[in-house]
Amino acid sequence: MTTPDSSAGVLALAPATEAPDAGLIEQLANQLFQSSFAQGPTAHAAPLAEPAAEWQAPTTLDLQAIPAGLVRSLALVPPSRGGGLPSPAASQAPLEQARTASGPSTADSPGVGQVPAFWPLEGAQVPFPSQVPAVPAAPEAHAGPSGQATTGHGYGFLNASPQAPRAATPAAITAPSALSLDPQLVPDLTRGRREAFDARAVRRDFPILQERVHGKPLIWLDNGATTQKPQAVIDRISAFYEHENSNIHRAAHTLAARATDAYEAARDKVRRFIGAGSSNEVIFVRGATEGINLVAKSWGAQNIGRDDEIVVSWLEHHANIVPWQQLCAETGARLRVIPVDDSGQILLDEYERLLNAKTRLVAVTMVSNALGTVTPIEEIVAIAHRHGATTLVDAAQSVSHMKVDVRAIDCDFLVFSGHKMFGPTGIGVVYGKAGILEETRPWQGGGNMIADVTFERTSYQAAPNKFEAGTGNIADAVGLGAAIDYLDRFGMDTINRYEHGLLEYATEGLLRIPGLRLIGTAKEKAGVLSFVLEGWRTEDVGRELDREGIAVRSGHHCAQPILRRFGVESTVRPSLALYNTFDDIDALVNAVRRLAGAR
């Protein structure tokens, strides 16, 4: 944001020499939203409320409207729709006179606190009277959950919290009928369109978030364990059982065809979602845990032998440790562990020193479920491949928070669970490169995976069917496809930026609480905040928060090695998702602060 010229007392919008393109205004609105996301963490604020469908470019070239995003960014007073613009004389009027000139707040005529989606601007100068503070060049201060000022960098959100007052408003505006915008105000109009993300609207898609717990509205901050399900997923599963329910691949009747089509369509949605080259590289399993076991029992048993080495990291969930321990016990192979630093980030130099000619597999998480650490997964995979090792990526904690592209990562296997990405429980995915799957023997036998059976021999279907023995979880695979459709409505990049703002705001608030220790402070993190509170057992903190309607996870999170690396046996773990809001964070921080004061 450009600061006003102190000598002139105005922010100049230079007159245009010719009419700009009709799409400029819409581009500007979208750019303001996108560029604010790129600037860094948000201050406590509510999301922009305009639905994307209502954002329309003007049909004329006279620029008689500017987006509400620019109005908010400049802290301008919108004139009454009914009363028109204030007179030039009003431009130097005190702020209270400007409120009067702005007109009363009604449904048809918004007042100072209500900014319409578009409003007319016919002047080229925006006065900043002496009683109105200049637009700050530094990040704006807002009241945080503790009531103390916090610093944010702007995320394109309105400041709607009672603790966070809006910026002071200038008095009035005057300008000619055409204008061009200061390039410092709009740094790049060529970047892609970004829609406003409204977490409060998202919440309405999830019926369970309307529940009350102990008389309090439910605040779901246990997303690392499982995410809630949008109505679209619930409806799709119901529709399957009402109209398509049948076993697949094995009959000529209509319902079998419907069920098969729905199941295979879900497989193709997964392929597109993770960037796989073929649907034949997508195997449906019960979840990430079963997926890792499938790889261990099939590819692992076939390719790993005595004195071979398997490399995992300190950050792993038990599901990415125990199957490899079992394989080592069966084959005589050895398990080696990548160390992490005191922030919880993988030490890449130490990692590469672990690799040698005996290394057969590197199996590493993309995001730690206990700490939220985002690992440099592409670099980890590239280093493993340089040493001739096969790679497996546990993406259970990343698929709902960030874009996952298996071809960009270049991993050989990748696993994730549907229930952690707003899909049903009991469904998950193994991705495997086509060449590796072709050479790998199946784990289980029977049912759908066979091509021909005699008492002397059995031949198997090609991948993925040879890894899907028996009747699979057909309805929930279809439900997983619906969850992918739901995420596609927003885009993973948009979700990631929004959640990053929540994470930084929550981190700042929690770190102000006396006696609270945050476990895991890596520079790159997803929405996980593990902590311990002096004087409190973690399970007691979890129970006290539950009385406030706040659901968090307390315990070891099936990740005991990494917690012990930090000298603790358990933590309290709030974890974030796209439907969480800054109000949720305030409620959490205030509740924990009360506990800290009562210990």
Task: Describe the structure in your own words.
The chain is of the alpha/beta class. It has three domains: 1-191, no CATH class; 202-226 and 492-598, Aspartate Aminotransferase, domain 1; 233-488, Type I PLP-dependent aspartate aminotransferase-like (Major domain) (Aspartate Aminotransferase, domain 2, 3-Layer(aba) Sandwich). Helix content is 32%, strand content 14%. The protein is built from 17 helices and 25 strands. Helix 1 crosses helix 2 and helix 5 (231-243) runs antiparallel to helix 13 (474-488). The longest helix is centred in the middle third of the chain and has 21 residues, at 254-274. The radius of gyration is 28 Å and the shape is globular. 45% of the residues are buried.
Radius of gyration: 28 Å
The 3D shape can be described as globular
Give the count of structural domains.
3
Strand arrangement within the widest β-sheet reads 12-18-17-16-15-13-14
Profile the largest sheet.
7 strands, mixed
How far apart are the first and last residues' alpha carbons, in Å?
Answer: 44 Å
| CATH architecture label name of the largest domain | 3-Layer(aba) Sandwich
Instruction: Give me the count of strands.
Output: 25
Q: For the residues shown, what is the average pLDDT?
A: 78
